[in-house]
Amino acid sequence: MKFQKLLLVLLVLSLAIGSKFAFAQDEETPQEEMTMEEWQNRFDDYTAKKNELTGKVAELQKDKDGSCKNIRNKKSRCKKS
Predict the structure, then answer these.
(1) CA end-to-end span of the chain, whole Å?
(2) DSSP class of residue 58?
């Protein structure tokens, strides 16, 4: 009997907590309205940032490849000696 009561209490608690989280997700956060010009400006800024970061990634990839090549050359020289 005690086990059934404990199981019932746990079930009720889990339903109460689960419903709280389910309803909390339904609430929409108010978002500011943007004009088309503001949207375009923000889009252009993000595009510029993306292009800048893509360039940095390419530069870092070249550095990494150069370092790996340098390490391979040093390892091959060590094996020859």
Answers:
(1) 80
(2) H
The structure tokens 């019932």 sit at 8
Instruction: Quote the tokens at residue 57.
Output: 């990634």
Q: Give the pLDDT confidence score for residue 29 in this predicted structure.
A: 65
Q: Residue holding tokens 């956060």?
A: 29
CB-based contacts of 42: which residues, under 8 Å, 6+ apart? Answer: 34
Tokens matching residue 37: 């010009």
User: What pLDDT was estimated at residue 22?
Assistant: 63
List per-block mean pLDDT (blocks of 10 residues) for the chain, which spans 81 residues: 82 79 61 89 97 97 95 87 65
Return d(Cα 6, Cα 4) in angstroms, integer.
Answer: 5
